[in-house]
Predict the 3D structure of the following.
Amino acid sequence: MIPSVQEAIKIVVLYHSRHGTTQQLARHIARGVASIPHCQAVLRTVAEIEATPSATPNDPIIDLQELKECHGLAVGSPVWFGNMSAAMKHFWDQTTSLWVAGSLIDKPACVFTSSSSPHGGQETTLQSMTLPLFHHGMLIMGIPYSEPNLHTSFKGGTPYGASSVSKEGHASLDKQVSELAFSQGQRLAKTALALQLSNTTQTS
């Protein structure tokens, strides 16, 4: 049974962005999600813990109920010393109640990032964002090498997740980078939809 509109598959695209590049990646991932029938992208950000504002305009700040109810999740952060940003880490440190309840177990998830230099620590940052997802029991997805852009892009893109190298935060993303983010959103949505259909069949 295909879910009705009222039962749309909701994919949360959660990000923190200081200069706008990670926010742009989030939007391309959301476009990929929305391109899959019956799937809806929910763009959310996390609260700042420092005085410096994030890129504007911001999407709404995530709350735990939205995270609990999602069918899939994409998480993005800029590279901060080879790690996720403090704001993103602070958010995950507040999700113990969902961990205890097992609310995110077996839901698909992916990660994405951006940096101002090609050797800024993209892959370690992507891996750092998977750690809380593993602890929550989520199913981590990357980008397969069947994506042609992964072989040829010099502006970003890794098998661990979409990424971008940009010194101008508000400049348009590289076309190949945008396409990789879009494809990652599609893959996440297709997987979440397939899992939901499987669960529906098993319980019907």
Remarks:
- Residues 10 and 70 are 5 Å apart (CA to CA).
- Residues 1-6 have pLDDT under 50 and may be disordered.
- The chain has one domain: 5-203.
